[in-house]
Amino acid sequence: MSVAVPSQPDERLVKPRLWDRLVVRPEIGALLGALLVFVFFSVVTGEFLSPLGVANWLDDASTLGIMAVAVALLMIGGEFDLSAGVMTASTALVTAIFATQVGLNVWFALILSLVFALAVGALNGWLVMRTGLPSFIVTLGTFLALQGLNLGVTRLVTGTVQVSGMRSTDGYESAGMLFASTVNIGGTDFQVSILWWIVFAAVAAWVLVRTRFGNWTFAVGGSSLSSRAVGVPVVRTKIMLFMTTAFAAWIVGSINILRNASVQANQGIGLEFQYIIAAVIGGCLLTGGFGSAVGAAIGALIFGMARQGIVYAQWNSDWFMLFLGIMLLAAVLVNNTFRRRAERVRR
Amino acid sequence: MTAEASTALLQMTGIVKTFPGVRALDGVDLTVRAGEVHCLLGQNGAGKSTLIKVLAGAHQPDEGEIRWQGEKTALSTPVAALRMGVATMYQELDLIPGLSVADNIFLGHERARWGFTKDRQARRQATALLKRLGHPEIPPDREVGDLSAAGQQLVSMARALAHDAKLIVMDEPTAALAADEVTNLFRVVADLTAEGVAVVYISHRLEEIREIGHRVTVLKDGRTVARDLGADTPTSELVALMSGKRVETVYPNREESTVDSSREILKVEKLGRDDEFADVNFTVHAGEILGIAGLVGAGRSEILETIFGARKADEGTVYVNGKKLKNGDVRSAVDAGVGLAPEERKSQALLMDMSVAQNVTLASMRSYSSFGFTDRAKELRDSRAKLEDLDLRPADPRRNVSTLSGGNQQKAVVARWLVHGCRVLLLDEPTRGVDVGARAELYRLIRELAADGVALVLVSSEMPEVLGLADRVLVLRDGRVIHEAPADELTEADVLDMVMEGSAA
Ligand SMILES: Nc1ncnc2c1ncn2[C@@H]1O[C@H](COP(=O)(O)OP(=O)(O)OP(=O)(O)O)[C@@H](O)[C@H]1O
Ligand SMILES: [Mg+2]
């Protein structure tokens, strides 16, 4: 076998054109969708583009966005967390109960609540890895358990299904500065949660592309067997991802409790699917190994714009779900088409 | 023996590994010295991949002892094996499609400080590694899912090289490679051994073992049947050791042509797909085997998939028995009696979590079901017969396909179309990963099909296979047919020249 090595570069392996590389970015569908929704509501309603309008839909998108970004990381890692929605209520309840019923300083209550959240996240991850069951099932279990705990413990402690009275607790003001204050820009108050959303998305995007942990996240979602074989700590990575989701739920829970000063025990139920939807609009695949944190943040932005836009347009909010369904299908179709096209080009 | 023990880099003795229902390894010994290419031979299912997974820390042995540089060790995890200095290119475990080339190469041993990856350094080193493999043009920041099969194989090679290992295990690394890439790989292997690195090399192509091997260990049914043979051991002896029987000639000789040139079965007219191939015309008669030669990536698989309807043609038509097939419609092709055994068995052909029997009868479900109920007994009976023909081991049709060895999975794909009974059979690399004995059997079956009047199209990277089996050969380069001739008028060298240079001799 004396075959010469071909001297010219192998055309099978050379770079595709810039455009083809752009359109396979996972967030392309979400980006187009966000533009579309933005232009649409800017045209049909006047208030949508007013400073107050913008502040409103950004605020709506922010808490959803923080969760969607974390859920996107988890989905890239190949797992789901159905308990994420209830967790936002659980963390708020833990903080509120320790602050109002036990009388702890709010800061201290927040730390206990964080420990609780991380423990639940770790438990989720550990159960999934230990049992080998799909995370869909395992976290459905924690979802139900937390839902029960939220109601049961709240009623036991307060005799009602809500915890209130945060305003009179120690540290409420200072903690509120961090989680629930507003920033005045040009005469309009913007919620600080918007800032947290942007920071969280930026950090997550950074972690995904620039750190070892980010590589591992893609790897365990792409193929956990192959990852294990090359030495990726699969169990640790997945547990960390579940803990990240729980951490995000703690941020969102803290924002809620410090802003409203009270929390309902049945809050958060059903939100878990909104997080997953936002992540999928943002380009995450349900099968794992592919997706983007920025995409998920944009997915949440679409949610916020649509939800508030429908209010400004004075439509019945019943239409929101229809709108959402169409958005979801359209974004996924766009992502899919572009990926296919790119695949064809490269073959 | 003691002298060898002291110089041996790796010594595995009495390794036993059982899976539910199978004793995959039943007392295997393997001794590897530094700086040698040690070939591991054995039939499909002999336990080669299982042995190297034990060595890589991916499987825990039930019994046996592993010594590394004379010291007894336990390899409890893949990381332990990597730390010790064993890097592995697996036969089946793939790369991570969503990660870039550089990220894949350094996955698990990232160039990082405080958890932050040093991307520029990783990219530079990745390019250096790929350059060593003869492919500096593969962009290190490209997603691996975007690369061709050959490109991915190169990346997984680069990954093994990146580890600075003392022992590199290669499980059928050339199965998906074209001739020029094989040459590159061999050059790299020679460099490595010159530096004192040991290589454990698994392949079913005996000529490769002659070219780069130093010593040979033969496995059969999970046992070591011969160790430390020279690489110049005669083929007949190796085959006899592997299979326990003699295989005289690999290609059955053509006593008389089975081609019935009065009956055109498959006719392809001006077939083309943008950016893939163009203006492909050919006819296959009843009883004829048409071989397609060309490099990996020349468009061979694409043509077969387009005929089968798995890809939509942009131009041209396919006729079977004079009837036009619906463009891009697999159902219409299967109804017309066309079968395709694709190249990527795992993703394109097999339902990994179903039994062998169910996989084998998948295409012919109609003949196994009445009123929506499946006749499981008949399904088992028929598939068992074909499995025995192909020597698939273990010949138990109720096993899960995912537990079969690589070569045996390939046989299951071929068996499917044998059971189905087609008029046109498209075979894409039918012997990839199939051992020598079974290969001869497969060739005989292909000939028999032709004798029964089936029209066959055979794509293979192995020139002798195309020339030895086909009646007529098309030579393909960059998606275009550059030459067509009866197989006995072509030599291997001619065809290689044509596919490399494009100069039709
Ligand atoms: N995970 C598993 N579960 C059950 N059986 C298995 C498993 N892995 C391998 N086996 C069985 O162990 C035996 C040895 O398989 P192995 O993959 O080591 O063969 P091989 O020598 O590599 O063959 P090939 O040349 O086809 O790759 C086979 O009978 C196979 O079916
Ligand atoms: Mg194998």
Automatic annotation (TrEMBL), chain A:
Task: Respond yes or no to whether keyword Ligase is given for this record.
Answer: no
Annotated TM spans = 28-50, 57-76, 106-129, 135-157, 190-209, 239-258, 279-307, 319-338
Q: Which CDD domains match?
A: TM_PBP1_transp_AraH_like (cd06579)
Origin species, per record, is Kibdelosporangium persicum
Protein topology in the membrane: Multi-pass membrane protein
Function of the protein: Part of the binding-protein-dependent transport system for D-xylose. Probably responsible for the translocation of the substrate across the membrane.
Q: What is this protein called?
A: Xylose transport system permease protein XylH
The compartments listed are: Cell membrane
Protein transport listed as a keyword: no
Q: What keyword terms does UniProt attach to this protein?
A: Cell inner membrane, Cell membrane, Membrane, Sugar transport, Transmembrane, Transmembrane helix, Transport
Q: Which InterPro entries match?
A: ABC_transp_permease
Automatic annotation (TrEMBL), chain B:
Key words of the record: ATP-binding, Nucleotide-binding, Repeat, Sugar transport, Transport
Query: Which InterPro entries does the record associate with it?
Result: AAA+_ATPase (IPR003593), ABC_carbohydrate_import_ATPase (IPR050107), ABC_transporter-like_ATP-bd (IPR003439), ABC_transporter-like_CS (IPR017871), P-loop_NTPase (IPR027417)
Q: Show where the ABC transporter domain sits.
A: 10-246, 260-503
Indicate yes or no for the key word Repeat. Answer: yes
Q: Classify the source by domain of life.
A: Bacteria
Give yes or no: UniProt keyword Transit peptide.
no
| Full protein name | ATPase component of ABC-type sugar transport system
Give the source species. Kibdelosporangium persicum
- Source taxonomy lineage? Bacteria, Bacillati, Actinomycetota, Actinomycetes, Pseudonocardiales
